[in-house]
Amino acid sequence: MKKKQIGTAGLIAAVAFVYAGLSWQAGMHIEGQSKAAAQSINVSLARSWSEQVQLSLRSYDRGIFSSRAVYALTLTNQSKQAEQREILWSNQIQHGPFPWSRLQTGDLSVSGAVIQTTVLKNPTTEALFDATGGRSPVTGTTHISREGIATLRWTILPFDYTQDSLRIKLGTAELYARIGPSFSFFKSNGSLDGVTLSDGKLAFEVKGLQLTTDTQATKAGVQTGTRDLRIGTLSWASLDASSLGLQKFSLHTDLREANGLLGGITTAEASTLKLNEKVWGEFNLSLGYEKLNGSALRALLDFQDGYLLRKFLGLAPSESAAAADTKKLWQHIAVLSKTSPTLSLSPLSWKNSQGRSQLALSFTLNPSEPNSGGIGLQGAPLKELDATLSLSTPMLNAVYAQALQTPGANTTQVKNKAEQEVRKLLEQASQLKLGRAQNNKLVAHLNIQDGDFRLNGQRTPSEPLMKWLRTTLPSGWLAERSSAVQESPDENVSIKHLDPAVLTGLLSASDFTYDEIKDKDGDRVLKIGTAETGAEKIEFIFVGCGDDRTCEDVLMRATFPKNPHVALNAINEWNQRNRWARAFLNDAEQAVLEMDISAYGGIERDALETMVDNFFKLLREFSKSLSAERK
Q1: Averaging pLDDT over each range in 106-120, 464-478, 551-565, which range is the top one?
Q2: Which of 7, 169, 423, 462 could connect to 453 by a Cys-Cys bridge, CB 3.0–4.6 Å?
Q3: What is the pTM of this model?
Q4: Is the pLDDT at 187 greater than 70, yes or no?
Q5: Phi, psi (degrees; rounded to nearest 5) at 354
């Protein structure tokens, strides 16, 4: 009996020992993943938010069966350098293969980890904890499978929070999501009872929000698939009595990829539009797009995100920065035009009790370059445009009468005046041959093809329309390239593609040796002599280009010898001081420095040379900082 008991006890001890070893190994693996995740997120943030948002792994306490990681999300207002806020996130991790929290529920499936996430109380979040009765305003449970698939269930508690004059009132918010490894797919369902933002002058409110996504990542990093957004009511109001309201608003996007290009459709509907407490009818929009370059679209979206974030944080740009933003926008548009994309409204519809009016429009772009001043496009960027506008006469009468109606005004007189004004407008349009009347509607058709303008089927001189556009659009947006401006054929030539020969010429001029090879993905790589830089390996990688010599993306990377004295917080501190290149520790615990070169929209040779020089300058500075850590 004793032998049997001893044997059973030995078996239990052996199983426990093996399980503890597996859990410890899982904890070590998750620690590496935690570091890599922070770096991966920062790489994504760096595309547009690197100056304002940084995520860092503050600490990681590894145990046998569980570990604890603390992340810091730092928000910095660059207009007020002293104003830096950080939100601390605690991840309590139970690692596998059978996390205790799942065993308690009878779940015997093999799992990678179960993570319980909460916000920690600090000066930034103290008021939020007060508003939620001392509880974490955000809580979440994340199950990570052995295959790397994350299943999330997160909740935001309702709170009513006021700081200075800003009041934020939030209802309960919930999110359920399944996320593939490296965001290879994203499926989610989210809901928000309501949110109100007010500062005593403006008030913004959303109620009944539902969000659903089912997307997959493309090679360019764009998520294709479907997205659905539904809002019960949305309202905005200001003290000057102006207000805007939408009811039963919905937005649906279906984006697909074919032959390396994107296409799809976005529809938007609002059952009721209210402006200044007057109901103006319902709206429907259907926007289609074809032949969009994924990388160019991603770059444009990143630019938009950065611009909106700066606006949200109240970072007023200088005049030169605003001009630079405008030029960047035109560069992105020029890059998008390379594939001759087509966009269409089919249609934009406006309906009230008296009728329906709508605009159907479709246009295709010609491949174009930005003007020499950086604003506007050269040549004839519009390959073809076809537009039809249909205005309901009874609807125009009703809308104009509603606009004229004031408290105490005679309704019949207002109605008669509105009909007279609309009749005059239609007569003028008919005389100018801007449209034709048919079945209580004014219909106008415009077609532009290769510079040939036709209005309602009749060829029309383009100069009057262009003159009107030049006086209507912002200055310079239709600026034409001046023939008097003569650029140097060598100094200001724009490089469109990053062929290895372009970069090897710069390397040779700086006395760097190099060899051209291919990596495991088939992309060309320039292996560069490390000289006295302190790096173990320096590479220029032509990302995602294979044998294509018309590459537009190059990743410059330097890998340093393993140094056990280098701490992750030292890497993060270096990242906060240097915005052009990013540093991180790879899976082998080696310090890595990376910097991107993009030729989207073209890049001048001087600018390219400056970027390469800056990389080697930062490389040497980073090497010195690593040497200091070693000491």
Answers
A1: 551-565
A2: 462
A3: 0.65
A4: yes
A5: -100, -10
